[in-house]
Amino acid sequence: MSNQQPKALSTEYLFQPYTLPNLSLQSRIVMPAMGRAFSPGGVPGPDVAAYYLRRAENGVGLIITEGTVIDHPAATSEPKVPSFYGEAALNGWAGVVRQVHEAGGRIFPQLWHMGMARPAGSQPYPEAPSIGPSGIDLEGNKVGEPMNEEEIERIIQAFVDAAVHAKRLGFDGIEIQGAHGYLVDQFFWEKTNKRTDRYGGDLIKRSQFAAELIQAIRIAVGPDYPIAIRVSQWKMSDYYVKPYDTPEKLDQFLDVLVQAGVDIFHCSTRRFWEPEFEGSDLGFAGWVKKLTGKTTIVVGSVGLDDEFTSLYTQGKGAGHKDLDDLLHRLDHQEFDLVAVGRALISDPAWAIKIREGRESEIQAFTREALATLH
After folding, report:
1. What is the distance of C-alpha 346 from the center of its chain?
2. Which end of the chain is more exposed for a tag (fewer CB within 10 A), N or C?
3. Which helix (H) or strand (E) is 29 found in, with range?
4. How far apart are CA 202 and CA 224, in angstroms?
5. Who contacts 368 (Cβ-Cβ below 8 Å, separation ≥6)?
6. Signed CA dihedral, 129, 130, 135, 138: sign only
7. In this structure, are residues 230 and 188 in contact, taking their beta carbons and an 8 Å threshold?
8. Residue ranges, the chain, pLDDT below 50
9. Rounded distance, CA 113 to CA 132, Å?
10. Active-site residue list
11. pTM of the full predicted structure?
């Protein structure tokens, strides 16, 4: 057996265009949703527009906004998280879209509801009870009542309304936050979904809420408007949980979403290079690509020398790491697009510096970077 190392690949591969029906990207680099909370009263202002513009000007192909709140009083716990409803907020988003497009970028809003991850009594509507499929929080405690069918229908309609707003404003598609233990993911997860109606039970039934949500959005926006969903195994309360612990279970789960109308899977993991299942080198995104054939975005400590949980467990930042493994996986079509998170928070020019071989000039991610819209 040869001990030769694989030859180094050019970073230029990251800057090849990528095309889907109704979506053409200038590069394979994606800015994923990362909560910033710089929108007082839920309204994104000129500083937020400039923040996204700087990434589009510097080679990011697709920007996915931070999680934006659908029209429900218990959707968020922070009044400075941007809304995706109401005239003022939507006018602000129209300015964001216009500027990103003028720079040649493409942009999706991430549509979001926290569900039971929202602490009771949170602003901006402290009187609103947090809601979830079974009234169970991420630790497994029963702290509320299960959502009734009327509440489920209201939430689905709020997601649909937001998607319709996105299309009207000129966004290039939408992403549903279906990961990390937020509302949609709470229906997926057996620990937080103990329902006995059609929204609970086995893996397929626990995916029914998301299927109905996606189907309703698809009907409202038409057959060609891109719909992405962010998915993960890990939860905010448990980085090591693996609900889909075999390829067969993952395939069952993904097939429900494909049949409902998902075009793009945004695959969140702590470390993109780690094998998802024994007996294969494929990571989470690689398995999703293999099983669905759909456009797949990889995300998880790309370009960083420490994975993302170090920010929360140790309060530290991260420096730059070479991209050789990433590039080889991209070359082997393990995934299609590459989401770069914290590195783009601290340095809006990360992509162009990578392209031009100026890695030594990259601004390292620090916790302090979160205090400013760089």
Report:
1. 19
2. N
3. strand 29-31
4. 31
5. none
6. negative
7. no
8. 1-2, 311-313, 316, 318-319
9. 10
10. 182
11. 0.93
